[in-house]
Amino acid sequence: MTKLVEENALQGALSLAFQHDDEILIEKWLCGPEFTVAIVGEEILPSIRIQPAGTFYDYEAKYLSDETQYFCPAGLEASQEAALQSLVLQAWKALGCTGWGRIDVMLDSDGQFYLLEANTSPGMTSHSLVPMAARQAGMSFSQLVVRILELAD
Question: What is the CATH number of the domain that holds 81?
Answer without folding.
Answer: 3.30.470.20
